[in-house]
Amino acid sequence: GDDGDDGGHCRRAVSVHRTSKGFGLQLETVTDEEGALSHNVVSVLDTADVRGGVLHAHDVIHVVNGTDVSSLTHEDFLVFLGSQGNTLEMEVSDGDAKRRVHVHRTEHGFGLQLCTTTGSHQVLEVTSDAQLSGDELRVGDEIVEVNDFDVSGMAHNDFMSFLSTQGDELRMVVRDGELSADALGRKCVVNRKATGGFGLQVCTYGGVHQVSEVPEGVQVSSGAVNVGDVIEKVNGEDVSKLSHEDLLVFLGKQTELEMTLSDGTLPEEGDDGDDGDSECDLTVIMLSLHFLLCCVLFTPLTCSPSITFDLSPSTFYSQSFLSSCCCCCFRCCCR
């Protein structure tokens, strides 16, 4: 409920309970031009146990367990919180104005490119195909709620999977934000190996393409590529809308991979997302024809439906996909 008003922003009550990892909040204290202190929430971590309301990044904390904390310095504020036992009963308000935007699905999708950094989902690009109503949507905006659901703190994969289940309209609550260097993506260049492939393993989970393994011998000439990295662009092309199979075909046509990457985390074992859309393929198989030809020349061609390929707990390969690859290479060998 609303407990008061603070400069046009209504206060609301929320409680945060201590877990084995603490309260799960990152906080800061800022001083305005008049010298007034403000204790703000920087981020709400996945480990936070928040009850009785919603707590967002940028929220201002006014009262904790009945005590007005607005006059405390940052150090005194943290000491005070540490002395409050296992529950923080807080009065908070929005730290900045929020806007409400409706995004409508078209035949090309929603027309948005999004990124996630430190648990904050931001708008990376609003394409010309986007159909919007309500308030203005800007590049850098932080997405706080979608269809009345708090999405702050969600992992990028879970966020994208959630959006895919939301029908033809996204009713978003956003606030002003600024893209960081991490949000704009890291650049990395991977060159083909002497055997003809790139050597990377790529996984597609909930429509998000990620690097699932970086074996020894991968030739990175610039930047760095890590397990879990989300692949946003390759050689200037946006690959976020490609299916897993189309991505592999696209990669196979490139002489080098100049990739735009963002930090990500692979889904945990057994976590297939809301729609169960999780595919992992050994890209080196798709991209190294030389390796495939050698396998076909010296190994009997068998494509039994009972064959399974388990290279990691969260990785599987479809029999039909490998069968088509092997048959294709067999035809090439016989010419």
Topology:
Elements: E1 2-6, E2 9-17, E3 25-31, E4 37-44, E5 49-51, E6 60-64, E7 67-68, H1 74-82, E8 87-93, E9 98-104, E10 112-117, E11 120-126, E12 131-134, E13 142-146, E14 149-150, H2 156-164, E15 169-175, E16 186-191, E17 201-205, E18 208-213, E19 219-222, E20 230-234, E21 237-238, H3 244-252, E22 256-262, E23 278-281, H4 283-287, H5 289-298, H6 319-334
Antiparallel strand pairs: 1-2, 2-5, 2-8, 3-4, 4-6, 6-7, 6-8, 9-12, 9-15, 10-11, 11-13, 13-14, 13-15, 16-19, 16-22, 17-18, 17-23, 20-21, 20-22
Helix pairs in contact: 5-6
Number of helices: 6
Q: What's the overall geometry?
A: globular
What is the CA-based Rg, rounded?
24 Å
Please give the share of residues in helix: 10-25%
Mean pLDDT: 76
Total beta strand runs: 23
The fraction of residues assigned to DSSP E strands is: 35-45%
Structural class: alpha+beta
Biggest sheet descriptor: 8 strands, antiparallel
Topology pattern, helix = H, strand = E? EEEEEEEHEEEEEEEHEEEEEEEHEEHHH
Low-pLDDT windows of residues: 272-278, 281-335
Distance from N terminus to C terminus (CA atoms, Å) equals 75 Å
Explain the overall architecture:
This protein is an alpha+beta fold. The chain contains 6 helices and 23 strands. The strands form 4 sheets. Strands 1, 2, 3, 4, 5, 6, 7 and 8 form an 8-stranded antiparallel sheet that branches. Strands 9, 10, 11, 12, 13, 14 and 15 form a 7-stranded antiparallel sheet that branches. A hairpin with a 2-residue loop joins strand 6 (60-64) and strand 7. It starts with a strand and ends with a helix. 27% of the residues are buried. Residues 272-278 and 281-335 have low confidence and may be disordered.
